[in-house]
Amino acid sequence: MVPPAGMPAEAWVRKCVEATQAAPVDETTRATLLFAMSVFGSFVHPEELFMGLITEESMQTSPFYEHLRQRHLQEGIEQGIEQGIEQGIEQGIEQGARECAIENTLAVLTARFPQSDVNAVRLALEAMPNLEHLKQLNLVASLTPSFEAFLRALAA
User: What is the DSSP letter of 7?
Assistant: First the structure.
């Protein structure tokens, strides 16, 4: 892939691509040659030279190109699955923490104010998306002087 003396690299790469495209070989071989040229040629020249001269479509019938494309696709799918699992675990942990904060708050209110309708508070707590706010309300339930004072804090 080293150009002859005095010939710019871009002109040499263009000449190599044109010669490969005109070679008397079948499409699969031509696609494989173009793919190999773009891969190995990019060790010597900027890959942009090849990207501008060799289209992806012209390499698609190469079994090597297809193998790498399928491998890359599979790796992308596996990475997406892994990220989805991690995200699901994180969401599950947060949901569990929310439920725990709600149940703990209700348990504290029930223990401190047994005559109050604590279950009426459940829907308001469940509607709160912010876990930190739910944790704060748990502390308020532990320290508030009355159930009515808790309801005011809940409404604020």
Answer: -
DSSP summary character for residue 45: S
Answer yes or no: is 72 within a domain: no
56 and 99 housed in the same domain? no
Structure tokens at 29: 């071989």
> Do 107 and 147 share a structural domain?
yes
Give the chain's domain count. 2
Q: Which residue has the higher pLDDT, 40 or 146?
A: 146
Q: Which amino acid, residue 80?
A: G
Instruction: Look at the block and give the residue holding tokens 């890359």.
Output: 72
Residues 107-146: pLDDT tens digits? 999 999 999 988 889 999 999 888 999 999 999 999 999 9
H-assigned helices in the chain: 9-22, 27-41, 47-53, 56-59, 63-112, 119-126, 131-143, 147-155
Q: How far apart are CA 19 and CA 37, in angstroms?
A: 12
Domain co-membership, 103 together with 53 = no
